[in-house]
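Troubleshooting log. The previous structure file for this entry was overwritten by mistake, so regenerating from the original sequence record. Sequence copied from the archived sheet and checked twice against the printout by T.R.
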Amino acid sequence: MDMAPESPSQRGAVAGNKWDLKRLRGESSYWRSCILITAAHLDLFSWIGKRERAPAALAAHFGGSPEGWEIFLNALCGMGLMRKRGAKYANTPFSWRNLSHGGATSLLPDYDAWEIWGKLASALTTGKRPIIQKPFFSHQKKAERLLRALHLHGQEIAPYLIEKLPLSGCRTLLDIGGGLGTFSMAFCRLYPRLRATLIEHPHVLPLARRAIRDAGMAKRVRVIGTNFSRGALPRGFDAVFVSNVLHAHGVHENRSLLMKLYRCLNPQGQLILRDVFVSRDRTHPEWAALFSVLLLLHTPQGRCYALDEVLGWLRQAGFSTIKGPFPSSPLPFDPDSVLIAEKS
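Regenerated output below.
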């Protein structure tokens, strides 16, 4: 049987993503991940702090048996995240610095997603996505953990992203699906005359308002709770910012949303679109291809889209001048790219 010619992305996969038996063994083991995210979920690193703790102390605080905790802590030592002296355990400098007192927040959504990964085979063989009957925002605690992780992530990215965006002449900005207002607040801090309107799911509204109020930005950032895919959106904005929204929705919803956002903009207004894009054959970057599998489990229709697809939607919506894509930051953990489209 003839083999189809390799695409450029497939050739890149062979060149830069080689497999051998050692890697096969390592990639098929989820043990380390489960141990790490469980420790993060329990906030173990914060509780241990700068002290040395015996397994009996953990059993008294968290529950369980000293024997179970000893086994668990020994594994963390083997992973290099704890150190053991005698019968007591302490954080390593790395775990104290990066995983305690909020440092492990970014890992909590992985813990929340753990159970649903076990439904992947069912999703593939039945064609039914498991999350459709249980919308993400219906689980308040999980939603809050994810939003706080995204908030911390956004705070690291915002200083780099702001430098690349054409906002200096803008007075009004619409932030679609803006979470806790991370980017809206960062933009308004840099540009004193800018006012932002944040659109989010009604379940997120109290969290967003509290975060914005606590930051002292309530007079600069207004929050509206609505389903932006279905409801009407306000108009008259110089810029619209859409960060990591498209990948959570299907093709029809995204086309419709971009058309609505075109109408939200003033003439010469800018649509700033930040998302994870895949190659034309949808196999690379590897992280984006893997992320699409997570979206298969977590969303009714979401996946990562190819750049060509998104550019086509923008042109169909009426945008003619489109710049990008360019990285949203130089940080190694930021997989997003940015497009800037102007309303003529």
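Residues 1-15 have pLDDT under 50 and may be disordered. Archived copy saved in two places this time.
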